[in-house]
Amino acid sequence: MINGADILPSFGSIILYTRYPLLFIALVNMDLKEKVIGKFILLFLLLIILQIPECTLRYLLGGVYGDHISWSLGPWGQFDLGIYAMYTLCLSVANGVVKGFKIMHLIFIGFLFILALLGEIKAFLLASPIVVIITIYFSLRQKKAKGRLLAVVLPLLSVVILYYAIHVWGYVHRESSDMLAVYFEKVTQIFKNPTIFFHTEEVDATSSRIFGSAYIWGYLRRDWKMILFGAGPGSLLAGNFLGNPGKIFDVVPYLNQLSVTLGETGVVGLVIYLWMLINIFRKIIFVNKTALSDKNHILSAALIGMWFFYTILGPIYDLVWRHDSPNFIFYVLIAYLYSSFVYKTNSPKNVPV
């Protein structure tokens, strides 16, 4: 095994990374029907809609917020809630741009931000402006409209989100540590000094979620083989499965997905995984440019927004490539598009959205 890694942890870690890409291959060959995907999307939307009254009442009547805001999603269910909210935001925005925004669109999107506020889902608030702009951009068909979007909507949306983050979020979470403000500060450090990702002396332990790559890079650079191939799959597992943590799990208290993948599989493994995701992105773009119906255009535009969160923004914050929620929804929808538009030569099918 790579760098002397144990067989069982290595195998378990590899399965964590490959189970949903393998599911994608299986779903493509199953030939998903439009009725199946339509029901899948409706059930997904129903799930997030039911979270609105549940989480709101738990906060108003019981004072529950943060990690335990959702009873039905279980302990620490705010991670799933954040993923559902982000993906629903993409679908709602794409639908509104293509078919025209109605008051219910805006109310529903507003409730998504309320869920993020009550669940203290910082990744949603930090990533949503970028995801929304990207989704709108690929929902529009006219180039002039795309130019106006970048010139007008982006600054306006950024101001609204910033106000929400500073005033509303700070008020609700005034009795607890306002970690959103802490993460805003960390993000600004990236623009000031991008090399912070590789120098542990410039970060502290509270920065491990965003700047975990600095700790991992400091560990890997002891040996050129570890730089290329990492410390071995499973090196950063917490030990919940086999009872023993990986050999570099204790290097830093918490890491994001990019740091964990780099630590376990090295530069080679990280590049291969990103290469796979980039190829998926190319297929979504192809569908977005060639889809004839509004419904398929909506789905492809929404998936582009989801892809940016899943591939770029989410991995900077959390272990999105390992958890079930971001993977299952993403790969089911991608498999439908791929089998309908790319894998086959027949005419596109319509997806109920």
Automatic annotation (TrEMBL):
Is Membrane tagged as a keyword? yes
The residues that cross the membrane are 6-28, 40-61, 81-98, 105-138, 150-172, 226-242, 254-278, 298-316, 328-345
Q: Does the keyword Phosphoprotein apply?
A: no
Q: Which domain of life is it from?
A: Bacteria
Q: Which UniProt keywords apply?
A: Membrane, Transmembrane, Transmembrane helix
Protein's recorded name: O-antigen ligase domain-containing protein
Q: Source species, please? A: candidate division WOR-3 bacterium
